[in-house]
Each structure stands twice: as structure tokens, then as C-alpha cells.
Amino acid sequence: MSTMSVIRSTTLSLATSALWPSYLLVLSYAAKFAPWPRSFGRLVAFLLVVAAAVLYAHNVWRSILGAKGWALRSYNVPIDVIRRLRWARGFLTITAGLFLLPSQILAQGLLAPGGQPIYAHTVGRLLILAFELSFLYAIHRVVRHDAPPSVWLTGPDNPFPRLGRHRRLIAWSLLVGTGLLIAVDTQGYGFTARRLAAGLAQTAVVIAAGFFIERALMAVITRNAWRRIEPHSSLSANDHSHGSRDLSHRLRGLVRYGVPFVGLAILAWIWELDLAFFRYVSEQRLWSTSAETFVTVGDFCRAIAIFAGTALLWKNLATIFALVVYPRISDDPGVRFAVLTLCRYAVLAGGVLAGFSALDLGLDKVGMVLAALGVGLGFGLQEIVSNFVSGLILLLERPLRVGDIVTVSEMTGKVDRINIRATTLINADNQSMIIPNRQFVTGNLVNWTHKDKIIRVVINVAVAHGTDPDRVSDLLLAIAREDADVLGNPVSTAMLEEIGPGVLIFSLQVYVPDPSVAGRVKHRLASQIQKRFRTQGIEIPVPKQELKFQASDFEALIAKLATGGGIAAGAAPAFTPSTPHLRIDRPAPNAIIE
Predict the structure, then answer these.
(1) What is the arithmetic mean of pLDDT over 412-421?
(2) Which of 246, 251, 362, 438 would be 221's cystine partner, CB 3.0–4.6 Å?
(3) 245-248 own/partner pairs: CB under 8 Å, 24+ apart
């Protein structure tokens, strides 16, 4: 059974287990105000509350460790472990009924024959001591090293490796803590012992609840993180998988630190942490900012907390946006990146100003410091400031966005990130080009996908004179329509561009949805044009080179050879060819000489 199934079954068990106990609680409330003696009503109401608690604990225990409990179905808990835990439950239930219940009745004076309550504090303390010893014995039987639960937690089939690693620490903490409580109670500090026992029990419940809540949240994140990935139409399955893992990792980090933080806050409330000491320490002075103003320890800690919170929010703002903001805005990576970056700048500026304000460094003093630094470092930082301002212009004006194909300073690539100082482009060789933001604002910028990602692909085709132009155009358009990546709107065009010497030059212009597919489309179309033209008998002329020589030049050469003469090495031939008629439409490896 999966973790989500365990969560659902546990929640359902907790809800259904409370049905009859809730009915008993209602009866206890009615019994307390029923028309019979008040002392008898109090006793009946108390017994009904105890019965409701016992029944609820029994139902929950049965849903966990029963024959059909999820401990067996989900974690394959060995039967000997379940038997030992059932023994501990039965033993504690019996001892609580024998010792703890009478002690509470005697301590609260619920026995009141004739309207006179009976208080027996000494007997009650002895009964509580007996129950505490029984509890220590039950804990020892469960956590000792040769007990089935301890053997199972240290075995290879343990589904809770964290508990297995700290088994000894947990066991000794339970035994030593219970022993100390018994020692405190026997010394006469009964109230302190009961308060410590209640606090420790609540602490154990909070720790166990935090453990299972963390596991549940991890399971939910693993199952549903992919649904929060901002969808990009151009992303492949691997990109989505990578984004899902990245988002899951960030969410797991938040849960890993967030759950313990909430747990510590709850424990501080359970133990009624006294804030007087912290208030006294926070009022201690550290330094003075003026004649009447001092920075205290509390101000300094507040500033540290603000700076730490700002850094944490800066780091995890992308995760928060992926969960809360991105599902509610347009599916445009450029818009999302711009919103995220501007919000990060706003968080950074607000956090820094709030931190300085906590240290009594207001805008006036911060401005004076910045002005003093500006005079000395203005010339040295002018390029950095210029690039920073240019980066803000790029984010606000948005002449380019993340994912656009741009050309700037004779460099072409895809926009990957727009940072504070520079923008990162990824070129066709998968190289990262770091370009200062100022070049995008002050230089010539070509954005191939500013309006949309549709671009035009042009293929020039040369055919022989005498070919029917309409036939060629229709065939080119038919080839374009058959390609899956060629868009129907804008429509493709095929036309006669030029009548050249020996050839007719046609131009096929098609549109593709994304620049990344332009090269593949051009290759497929060119291949299909060559095959279909050959099938349809349309000739694509081969480039030729014509060289014409005068007959007198050949006669002189033949005469020279007939008389036995030769051509000296390095000497020029005896004839001078006339200027050749040459036309080359494209590079030709072989020239034909006529």
C-alpha cells in the first residue's frame, strides 16, 4: 500500500473511531446536569468521559494493529511485534483501571456519600506510583534489546530506518525519563511530576505527528509536483521530468525545515515557555546611534531575523510562485521570469531597508552612506550600474524574453537568463554567451521571436529553361503541404524569382512554428524536391563551365610537339586562351570543358 493510501485510511480510521466516543461525551455532559444529586452526576460524567477515551483509544489501536489494521497491510509488521504491543496495551489498560482511575476519583472527591466528598491524597499518590511502576515495566518489556519491536527496527525489513538508527537513544530516553518522573513523584513533587509527564507525553505526540506529517507531505510532493511545473509547449518529456525533480527537491527542502519549525513553536506553547527572560535580554543595549537612541539586543536579533527571512524568501520565491502564482497567469516563460525577477528585487530591497530600519538606520542615514560611496566608487561602478539599469529596462520593457532567439553584436542564441549584470544566451553549439545588458539596450538587437516564434524558411530551386512554371510551383506547394512541421497559416508560396542564363530560379517560402525545427524542415523539403523532380522529369541543371580556345593555338602546340620540342618546366604554354564564358550558380566540384 502506498503512503497516500495509508494517509487516507488513517484519516478515515480516526474519524470513524470518534463516532461512539462522541456519543458518550454528549451523555457525560447530559449526566453532569441531569436532575439527580450533583455528586452522583459528577461521578457518572467522569466515568463516561473515561469510557469515551478508552473506547476511542481502543478503536484507533484496532485500526492500526488489528487483524485488518494498516500496520499489517502497509508495513508488514511481524506478528510477534504486534503481539508484544497488544500485550503492552492490555497491561496498561488493566493497570490504569486498577490504579489510575481510583486515584483520580479519590483526588477529585468524586465519591461523596451523603453529599460529603471523600479525599484520600495519600492513597491516591500510592496508586499513581503503582501505575508509574507498571508503565515503566511495560516500556522495558517493549524497548529492551531482545524484544521483538527492537529486533524488527534493527532488521533489514524495517520501513522506518530513522527510528532504527536511533533505537537505543529512544529506548534509554523513555526508560530514564520515566524513572526520573517516578523519583520526582516519590520525593513529594507530585504536581511537578504530573506536569512533566503531561508535557513529555504531548511532546511525544507532537514528534510522532510531525514524523508522519512529514512523510505524508513528502508523498504528496512526489505524486503531485509535476502538475505545478509551468507548462512550455517546446519542452520535451525529459525537460518536464527535470523540472518536476527540481520542484520536488525545493518543496522537500521547505517541508524538511518547515515541519520542525512548526513543531518547535507548538512545543514552546505546550511547555509554556516564559518570555520574561528573553524580554529582559532583548532590552540590553549594544551601541548608541544618537544621544537618545540605542540599538538593543532585540533590535539586532530582529535585524538578523529580517535578513535571514529575506534570504530564505529570495531563495524559495520561485517555489512559491510555481505553487501559487504561475497557475493563475499566462503560460509565457518570459512573463513568468520577468514577474519573478522583479518580485525578487522588491523582496531584496524591502528586506534590506527593513533590516537597516531595525538597526535604527533609516532611509536618510542609508542615503548618506550611499552618497558617500557613490562619490568614491561612481566611476568604477558606472558600468555595473549601467548594466543593472539596463537589466531593469529589459524586464520592464521586454524587448526580449526568456526563450527568445535574438541576435546582438553578431551573436545569435536563445535567451536563457536575464541577470542583474548580464544576460545569458545559448548558441547553436550549446555554448553559454554572457553578454552585458547594456548591449541589448544601446546596440542593434534582432529578436527573431519577439512577436511569435513563427519564422520563414526559403529554398531556392533552379530548373532548366522550357519547364512549365505553373507545374513547378504546384509541385513545390504540394511538397510543402505534405510536411508535418510546415504551417498552413501563413500560407506557403512558390514563385518564379529570376530568369537566369540557362536556368529558371524558383523560390519556395514556408513557415515553421519554431526556429528549432527550421533546419530539419529545410533538409526534408530539399530532399523531397530532388526526389519528386526526378520522378516528374523536371531537370535541375548541373552547373557547367565552358572554355573556348582558338584553333591557331592548338596548331602551334601540335607543331611544337611534332618537331620533338617540349615545354620547359615552369614555362608558359605557347598559346593564350580566350576569355572563357563562365557561369557557376553554386560551388561545383567538377567542371565540364567543351
Answers:
(1) 85
(2) 251
(3) 247/319, 247/322, 248/221, 248/222
- Tell me 96's DSSP state: I
Percent pLDDT > 70 in the chain is 79
Whether the model clears a pTM of 0.90, i.e. scores above it, the answer is no
Q: Name every residue whose Cβ is closer than 8 Å to that of residue 191 and which is 6 or more positions away in sequence.
A: none
User: Cα–Cα distance between 31 and 507 in angstroms, integer?
Assistant: 97
Separation CA 489–CA 511 (nearest Å): 8
Residue pLDDT, tens place only, 465-479: 888 999 999 999 999
pLDDT at 529: 93
Contact 99, 128 (CB under 8 A): yes
Query: Cβ neighbours of residue 432 under 8 Å, at least 6 residues apart?
Result: 416, 424, 425, 426
Q: Where are the alpha helices (DSSP H) in 154-236?
A: 161-165, 167-186, 190-224
Q: Contact at 8 Å (CB) between 593 and 577?
A: no
Contact in structure between 31 and 46 (CB atoms under 8 Å): no
Classify residue 529 as exposed, middle or buried by CB count within 10 Å of its CB (0-12, 13-18, 19+): buried
Distances (CA, A) of 511 to 277, 308, 457, 492: 73, 51, 6, 7
> To the nearest 5 percent, what fractions of the chain are helix, strand and coil?
65, 10, 25
Q: How many residues does the chain have?
A: 594
Q: Which three cell numbers stand for residue 22?
A: 462522541
Q: Are 480 and 486 in contact (CB under 8 A)?
A: yes
Distance CA 292, CA 593 (A): 102
In contact, 505 and 461? CB cutoff 8 Å: yes
Residue 380 three-state SS = coil
pLDDT for the residue numbered 68: 67
Q: What integer pLDDT is reported at residue 157 of this predicted model? A: 74
* DSSP per residue, 438-489: HHHHHS-EEETTSS-S-EEEEEEEEEETT--HHHHHHHHHHHHHH-TTS-SS
Other C-beta atoms within 10 Å of 283: how many? 12
- Distance of alpha carbon 519 from alpha carbon 231, whole angstroms: 25
Nearest alpha carbon to residue 463 among 544, 532, 542: 542
Q: Angle at the Cα of 390 (from 386 to 391), degrees rounded to 5?
A: 120
Q: Which residues contact 228 (CB under 8 A, 6 or more apart)?
A: 247, 322, 323, 326, 327
